[in-house]
Amino acid sequence: MSEYQVEYCLLIDDNMVDRFVHRRLLEHHKIARDILEFDNGKEALDYLAQVTTGDKRVPDLILLDLMMPEMDGFEFLKHYELWVQRSKMRPFLFMVSSTEDDHDLKRSRDNRHIIKLLRKPLIPKLLKEVIDQNSDLK
Amino acid sequence: MTPRNSTKPIRVLYLDDEDNNLRSFKAAFRRDYEVYTANNTEDAFSILKSHRPQVIFSDQRMPVTSGVEFFNAVRQVFPEPVRILITGFTDVNDIIDAINKGHVYRYITKPWSEAEIKVAIENAYDLYHTRRQLKDKIEDLEKTNNELNRFVYSVSHDLRAPIASVLGLVKVAGIDVTDPAASELFEKVDRSVHKLDLLVNNIIDYYKNSKATEEFVEVNLENLVEDVLNQLHSGENRENLSLQKSISQNARFFGDYFRIRIVLSHLIANAIKFKKPEQQTAQVDLKFGIEEEKVHIIVKDHGVGILQDHVEQIFKMFFRGKDQMAGSGLGLYIVKEALAKMNGSIDVHSSPGEGAEFHIIIPNMIGHEDE
Question: Measured between beta carbons, which residues in chain A are less than 8 angstroms from residue B214?
Answer without folding.
Answer: none
